[in-house]
Amino acid sequence: xxxxxxxxxxxxxxxxxxxxxxxxxxxxxxxxxxxxxxxxxxxxxxxxxxxxxxxxxxxxxxxxxxxxxxxxxxxxxxxxxxxxxxxxxxx
Length: 91
Fold this sequence. Notes:
By secondary structure, the chain is mainly α. The chain has a domain at about 5-65. The protein is built from three helices and no strands. Helix 1 (about 5-20) packs antiparallel against helix 2 (about 25-45) and helix 2 (about 25-45) packs antiparallel against helix 3 (about 50-65). The longest helix is centred in the middle third of the chain and has 21 residues, at about 25-45. It is globular.
């Protein structure tokens, strides 16, 4: 782990990938809830207000995905920024 980096961001992105690739609904829900928890932890450690707000928004989005029956919440309204989807799996 390098200094100055928030380790919970990578963990949250990995959980989102796990949720998107889950075979069943219960595994997907569990992974989305864990992603939300990691985004909350990332927000707690962040000192930059803009990044903190972004992480909190991602946590809310992950919870909405966990609560939706198909595992993917409806897209955000046009006035809300879209959540960034991780593009690759981090080791």
